[in-house]
Structure formats: structure tokens, C-alpha cells
Amino acid sequence: MSSPPEFFTGYGEVPPALSRFLVKVIVGLLASSFVLALMLGLGVQDRGDGRYSGEIRATGVLFNLPYPVLRLLPTAADPQGHTMLVAGGGKIGAGDIADKAKGRVVELRGFGLKRGTLDMIVVDEESQVQPAAAPLPLFGAPVLIGRYLIAGEICDGKCYPGGMRPGTGLAHKACANLCIIGRQPAIFAAQSPIEGQSFLLLANKDGALPPPVLYDHTALPVEIEGEVMRAGDLLIFHADWSTLRKQ
Prior knowledge:
Helices cover 19% and strands 40% of the residues. It has two domains: 51-131, CATH 2.40.50; 143-246, no CATH class. The protein has a five-stranded mixed β-barrel. The chain starts with 15 loop residues before the first helix and ends with a strand. The protein contains four helices and eleven strands. It is elongated.
């Protein structure tokens, strides 16, 4: 005679065959959960290498292109003078602070942010901008290097280099818009380098501040056509917003 089928009544011991089945199910669920977690982790957007670089002092000339930038004094190693973006504390740009010293040689004291070739100094108050005893270098006006159709993402220039990580992507859209509305520098992070640069300071096609239309397109993959200008080692993208389209 064949043995009777195993049957679990709910109050006795679990039959051996059912125990083996449950072990297989549990192991399978654990393995599936591990694989799913690994796939989700691999799909998370790279946070980038943006970082704080501590308190810094930088001496140069303040310009408005259309956001405040500091062109450092030329050196033998860098005769063009490296260009740093200038941001304010929190979500408010440093335009009001920088305007009072625009076109003069000053020393800025603040904390630094850096991602790749993008350097930024963050200043919170006027006392962090002091006149410097140095001759005024003869920096030329920005030079046109060409017209480009560029694919990439509109970001705010404070979070992108490390003010927040990740400083790109849809999850950062609201934060990016608040920074740009507060006149923190807007930048365009290009998918492919332009003249060796992966980011460009963003401006309107006439060189003024970008229009509010960009708020609907921050943190999204887009393409824009416009003229690219060079100021020292900084590229400024004078975007023609009528050409903007989503990728």
C-alpha cells in the first residue's frame, strides 16, 4: 500500500515535504529580493564627485556674466586667470554683494565647492568681500567660439558641484528651481564636453539672465541651440530658448 498523503492540520507538526517546500520558497524570495535590490541600486543616478573644499580665499576681479564670477589674477601657470562661479548662502545668489565690487580686484573669503573643472566660492555677506592690493589686470570681453546644439541638463550651479548630492536629476528639480529663482548661477551640464568643458554657465541669448521658461525644463534631458562664449577658462552658453526641445 502507498503511504497516505501528508496533510497539515494547522495545529500539529509541519510535514517534511511541506517543510522542504517552504524552505525553497523562502530561499527563492530572499534571492529574488537580493537581485531586485542590486538592480535598483545599479539604476540609481550617480551622485557625481562634487564636494566641499573647505574655507578658501581667492583674489581676482568680479564680473557679471550674467551671474557673478571671479576671474583669478593671472599667474605664469595660468595667464588667462582661472574663473570661479560665485554663489550666496542658502538659496539666494550673491548678485547684490558682488555688484558693489564689480570690476575691482577683491579678495573673497568663503567656502569652496568643486566638481570636475567647476569651481565655486560661496559668500554669505559683504564682509567676505574685501579690496585687494593688486593691480587691475586687463581681462578682455568674452569671445565667441561658435554656435552649438547641445544636449544635456539644466542645473543650478551651487548644488551641482557639491552643495547637495545628487545635484542633478528629476528628484532635484524643485531644489534647482528654488536656487535659480533666488539667482544662484544656472548652468548647463552637457552630455558631451564642449571645448573640453562638461558644464557651461547659462544665459539668455542676449547675455542676460535666463528667462522663467527654464523652470519647466530643469533636471530633464533637453537640447538647446545657442552661442558659446569664452571668458578665460569659463564657457558661457547664450541659449536660444525658442530651440529648446526635450530629448
